């Protein structure tokens, strides 16, 4: 059995990072659940929440019911990546922390989730990122956690390496922040979590999935930009929208992590699929069969 990481024996300072926008009841449930969590021995927790321009009374609710939370006001245009980055920057301004915990306000943690994710970290031989596996509250099937390339990885009782991390409930140690900083300014809503995990790996750190499910979160199925049942104008809008594919940021992601050739190929492939989704799939499948036959 591996020896336990030194963090297991020290006083731990945890900074929990959350962002929200106009879903007061979910945010309230998230905070209630968070403050009911039993912390690891010798651990303390500070919560930094960015309310990104909510108009439903979220900030008032937080001030009244959770005065211990560090409440940060966003512009209303930060979305997930921008809101989490702002919360992270405020946490760094407010003191020194051993770990930073990302938490989505639609993720409901199981009892002992924080202790469990810290214990998972304690068996690592060197600093790494731990991403928690989450399941659907009704079906109990996997929804979030992380992926290999390209399939999702399911919890199996052991820590497993990930290529891509989902940002629902993630533990990041200070050593990684000191090396690569916080979430990138290149992303608005999506891809910031994938990007952070990949940058950490390029810097020599590994990303892992927890041994078991640590919480519940419904799968957020957005509109499909390649749905042939939609008119071209609608597909185009989804492909370029912040909560859709966000074409500009997607191509930047592909280019930054896989190079200019892959970035160019992704641009061509995406626009071909966008313009003629049915035909694109037919040609792709035909070419795959030809390649398989030639092997």
Strand tally is 12
Strand content: 15-25%
Our count of domains comes out at: 2
Number of helical segments with 4 or more residues:
10
Evaluate the radius of gyration.
20 Å
Query: Residue-averaged pLDDT, rounded?
Result: 93
Reported CATH architecture of the largest domain:
Alpha-Beta Complex
Write down the overall geometry: globular
Helix content percent band: 40-55%
**What is the third-level CATH name, the topology of the largest domain?**
Spore Coat Polysaccharide Biosynthesis Protein SpsA, Chain A
Report the top-level CATH class of the largest domain: Alpha Beta
Low-confidence stretches: none
Pfam families: Glycos_transf_2
InterPro entries: Glyco_trans_2-like, Nucleotide-diphossugar_trans
Protein name: Glycosyl transferase, family 2
Family: Belongs to the glycosyltransferase 2 family.
Defining traits:
single chain; 295 residues; alpha/beta; Spore Coat Polysaccharide Biosynthesis Protein SpsA, Chain A; 2 domains; 10 helices; 40% helix; globular; transferase; Glycosyl transferase, family 2; Glyco_trans_2-like; Nucleotide-diphossugar_trans
